[in-house]
Amino acid sequence: KEVPTKNKGTGKSKEYIAMADVFKKRWGNKPINEITDEDVRKFKAFLQSTRKPKKGLDLSAAFWNNWAGVYNAIMNHAAIHLKLIERFPLWEKSKEEERKYYPEPIAISRMRDELLGMGGENPLRADMLMLMFHTQLRNNNCTNLLIEEVAHDLSFIRIPGHKMKNGNTFERPLNEKARDIVRRNIQKGEALQERYKWLDPVRYVFV
Q1: What residues pair up with 150 in beta bridges, in sequence order?
Q2: What is the pLDDT of residues 45-68, one digit of tens each?
Q3: Closest by alpha carbon to 9, among 17, 1, 22?
Q4: What is the mean pLDDT of residues 89-110?
């Protein structure tokens, strides 16, 4: 099956190409005009089995909507541009839950100051808090941010889709304050590596 034309050069388009390849692997030998509602149901079950949600929670609406978007783009392309089909099984998008709480910058600053005043490992947590504030990273993705996911010049971070809740590649430019946080913590890791040479190579930004 052919897939729609894609914009080149963006992380999101590469992710969509990879998702389209999953459809091709699952349905590649089946004529596109023979794909049924049951095939779509089985494909959803396959996705469910390969991506286990954490803590027993359902996979996010954003995750399902990304797959629905790729599916509908492929099928619309086959119907409108290639004239291979007249209709196809429906895969409706779900309503995504809107974020209801947005902390104000002053609240973030107070949290940072409290963490810094507590000592121990809390200054590290303060740095992570501020990086999340500047990048909108989730806690888990910030905690497990790899050095290899940071550009060499510290200009942006790029986290592959399989590590993100919605399945999309996350790419975000870093402002000056975010670069300072990342640089400082990578340097801390390098210092630890130099001091304890028997340690495995430090892979994470925050150690």
Answers
A1: 157
A2: 998 888 765 555 567 788 888 899
A3: 17
A4: 77
CB-based contact 42:11 (threshold 8 Å): no
Query: Coil, strand, or helix at residue 184?
Result: helix
Q: How many CB atoms within 10 Å of residue 160?
A: 16
Whether the full predicted model's pTM is greater than 0.70, yes or no, is no
Within 10 angstroms of residue 150's Cβ, the number of other Cβ atoms is 20
Query: What residue type is 159 in one-letter code?
Result: I
Helices and strands in the chain, H and E counts:
7, 2
For the segment 165-192, what is each residue's pLDDT rounded down to a tens digit?
A: 777 788 999 999 999 999 999 999 999 9
Closest CA to 49 of 72, 15, 20, 26: 26
Q: From CA 204, how far away is CA 181, in angstroms rounded?
A: 13
Integer Cα distance of 204 and 207 in angstroms:
6
- The CA-atom distances, in angstroms, between 99 and each of 43, 96, 102, 103, 109 are 29, 9, 8, 11, 21
CA 42 to chain centre: 24
- Give yes or no for a contact between 19 and 26, defined as CB atoms under 8 angstroms apart: no
Tokens of 176: 């000056």
